Amino acid sequence: MSTKLLTFMLMVVFALMLAFVGCSDDDSNPATSSSGTADTTELNLIDIAQVIKDVAPPVYAAPILKSSPDSFEIWTEGDYPLLYKVFGEDDPQTLYRNVEFFEMFMDMIDGMLLVDENGDLIPGTFTEAHTDTIDGQEITRTGTCTVSALTTATAIPTACQGILGTSHDLDYLVEVSIEEMPEAELQIGFKLSETEQTMLVFQANMSGIPGDTESSITYASLDPSDSTFVFKGFMYCTHSEGAETFTTSFIMTSENTGDFSYRMSWYSDGIPDSDLLGCIIGGGNKDTEFALKYRQYTPADAAEYDAEWAFDEVFGPNYTNGTGLITDYATFVNEALIIGYDLVPHAVVPNPWAE
Q1: From the centroid of its chain, how far is CA 311?
Q2: Fewer Cβ close by (within 10 Å): the C or N end of the chain?
Q3: Is residue 348, in this structure, part of any structural domain at all?
Q4: Which residues pair with 245 in a beta bridge?
Q5: Are 199 and 170 spatial neighbours (Cβ–Cβ below 8 Å)?
Q6: Which pLDDT value is given to residue 297?
Q7: Which positions ≥6 away from 290 have C-beta within 8 Å?
Q8: What's the rounded Cα separation, in Å, for the pair 158 and 354?
Q9: Whole-Å CA distances, 204 to 63, 113, 319, 351
Q10: How big is the CA angle at 87 (ends 86 and 90), to the nearest 5 degrees?
């Protein structure tokens, strides 16, 4: 997925978010107004995105371009440093790009849905319209939102189960349709209790860019008692009527010790005469020390990784050069943890709630 495409998707989601949290002049459904009533209140979700940011290493900003003569500088410098591919915020496989995208959906849900005096979600269907100018573009979106209870577990499509699991027990489903974008799909299942806050987000064709196809499922689950979390994603995108494909899968988890574990791989056929799979594994503690490994496979389904594109590194706080050994982090950098070719998407991601 290109930066331009993802940026446009974020703009669309932002416009929808503004519409559904009450920025529109339409107050025909006061029961779901963002101001609430005497017997309703907002969800007030815990900010899972911020919890992830608190545990993950910080956003990595690429430095001025220069050559990369050794292993450490492969990670930190050059025209496209590895840390920028992992903990940057611009490219679609980066952690902070995916956190930002998830955060906008979470904010939309948090501002849109209300619960009654018993703490039960208020179901129903309502429509809002909003026009705004974002990055110099005027966007009008008319969204219809339906909130309903889920009575059975949500089955994860077979192609996604290696990353997302087989099923999840969710309580409610929010379905959003966009009048101006009939091909777009947005559905969010969630569960909210004293011991769990879970969201499963499916989106498809939210960009509205002709010739591009994209779909993804993102899963985030938080234990409110200790702020441990699981954050997973599965995304597929093609450009120019399928001429170029980019996909990614990732899994990030945290422990109550503050340690994190991160695995992420991305596939691209946008290189001359071949395709590739880039893979990151690692973990540790961002405030003390953590380790990462990078492995690259060309072609993407090769049995062995490219020896010249295999890098191991230990980092201190803020991406300084760590003093520990890579072997100290064996539980995080075991190469059996690599998300392989068979675990990244190879086709449009199916809708888990499709009838």
Answers
A1: 25
A2: C
A3: no
A4: 238
A5: no
A6: 97
A7: 57, 260, 282, 283, 284, 314, 315, 322, 329, 332
A8: 13
A9: 34, 22, 35, 8
A10: 90
pLDDT digits (tens, 9 = 90+) for 4-38: 444 445 555 555 554 454 333 343 343 343 334 44
Instruction: Indicate whether 67 belongs to any domain.
Output: yes
Average pLDDT over every residue of 202-216: 84
- Rg (Cα) of the chain, in Å, rounded? 21
Specify whether the CB–CB gap between 261 and 292 falls below 8 A: no
Give whichever of 27-36, 59-68, 208-217, 297-306 has the largest mean pLDDT.
297-306
Domain that holds residue 306: 3-23+41-343
Instruction: Please spell the DSSP secondary structure of 303-331, one letter per residue.
Output: SS--GGGEEEEEE-GGGPBP-S-GGGGHH
Question: Which two three-digit tokens encode residue 264?
Answer: 């992420």
In a domain, 261, yes or no: yes
Q: Letter for the amino acid at 343?
A: L
351 falls within a domain: no
Residue 83 parent element (H or E): helix 82-87
- Looking at the 3D structure of the chain, how many domains does it have? 1
Enumerate residues 6+ apart whose C-beta is below 8 A from 164: 156, 217, 219, 232, 234
3-state helix, strand, coil in the chain (%, to 5): 25, 40, 35
Nearby residues of 232 by Cβ (< 8 Å), 6 or more positions away: 163, 164, 218, 219, 220, 250, 251, 252
Q: Which of 16-20, 192-196, 270-274 has the lowest mean pLDDT?
A: 16-20
